[in-house]
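ENTRY TYPE: protein
WANTED: fold as tokens:
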Amino acid sequence: MLGMALEYAILVSLLEKPGSGYELARRFDRSIGYFWTATHQQIYRVLKRMEGDGWIEVREVAQEGRPDKKVHSVTPQGRRALEDWLREPVEPASLRHGLAVKIRGAAFSDPADLIGEVERHRAAHSARLEEYLTGEARDFPDPVSLDDGAALVHVVLRGGIEYERMTLAWLDEVLAVLHRIRAGHAES
């Protein structure tokens, strides 16, 4: 099972705080999902497999007026699996970017047709940056006094923030080139 990152993202999340499948899925929607996405269905399916593999254990917690909650936590075997995985090298991510291919291909069509698509990507990255910055302000108001675990969570979030800023700067550059080309075509 080594190399399957969803299992390890779940182990990390459960080591930070045991929780139900629903709580875990919400964490993926909120913070882990910034860097590793998974549907609720995928999370529940992987939790079941991890329980079968002995990586996590589940205990029932009674709730008043609601069905019992299944709280997942990491077993020693799961912790060892994570530690083994942490020692493995991770290949640097390669950039597979459909928009970049379209931008290069625009030389063989009207580049102005691409402006709306680049603006749409820019709006999405701008919204994600705002979401990250809001989360940072909410969750890390005093980054200097963070414990080791929180400092590592924060530095991953900072990587996301810087990635979005870099992407926005690149998209602004792309838009400037596309507008310049469009203006040149209009003069022709």
Summary: The CA atoms of residues 112 and 179 lie 7 Å apart. The beta strands are 56-63, 66-74. The longest strand covers residues 66-74.
